[in-house]
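So, does this match?
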Amino acid sequence: MTDSEITKLLGRIADALDRLAPPPPRATALDQADAFVWHAQPEGLEPVVKVNRIDVDLLKGIARQRDILLDNTRRFAQGLPANNALLWGARGTGKSSLVKAVHAAVNVERPGALALVEIHREDIPTLPHLLALLRASARRVLLFCDDLSFEATDESYKSLKAVLEGGVEGRPDNVVFYATSNRRHLMSRDMIENERATAIHPGEATEEKVSLSDRFGLWLGFHNLDQATFFSIVEGYAAAFGLTLPADELHAEALEWSMTRGSRSGRVAWQFIQDLAGRLGQSLR
C-alpha cells in the first residue's frame, strides 16, 4: 500500500473509533435550574424547566408527615444537620407529591437554596458517580428517588447503602437523600419471610438488606384515607381551581369515582378533579 492509501485507511479507522466512543457527558452545572433529572447514559444532569407538582397547602390528610419533612428540609437548606428520609406506604397517598412540594416551599422561603435531583430506580448503580459530581458543587441538593424497592436477586441496593452512611466517603455534606416506596424495608414481605424460613439463622438472613432502611433517619408512613379526609382533599382542589359545584353533589360524584377505582387516595382525588374540570370546561392552570 502507498503512503496515501495508508493515510486514508487510518483516517477511516479513526472515524470509526470516534463513532464508537461514548457521547460527551451532559452539562452538570447546578445553577442552570432548580430541578434536574440524572441520566446514566450518557451520565449527566438534565435541567427540568417545569416540575410536575402541586402546592404544599393542597396536600390534605398528611399534616404530620408534611411538617416533619418540611422542618428537616428547612434545616438542610440552612446548612444545619438533616436526615435522609424514607416515605413509605400505600399507593397514591402523596409521598412523591410531598417531596416535590416541600422542595418548592423551601425555595420560596430561601430562593435558589436547594436543587432537586431525581435519580431513577434503575440508575441507582451509578449513584456514586452522581454523588462525586454533587460533592464538588457549592449548592445544596435534595436527591430524590421515587418508588424505590429491591427484589431478591437485585444487588444494586449495596451502592445505595454504601453512599448513604456506611462508605468511606459517605453522603456529601451538601446532599440529603429522600426516597419513596410502597415497602417499609424496601423489599417485599414475601421475600423477607422466605429468606427467614430457609435460613439457618433466621434473624440474620435478611439483616443486610433490611439494614438499608436504617440508613434513613426519618421514616414517614402514609396510609389509606378515610372518607372524610378524601372529601377534604377533593374540596381543597375544587376551591383552589375554582370548580363550583354544590358540596353534596361534589361529594356524591367523588364517592362514585373512588368506588369505581376501588380506593380513596390523594391520587384518586386528583384524577377525579381532572375529570370534573374537563366536564365543566375549565382549566387547572
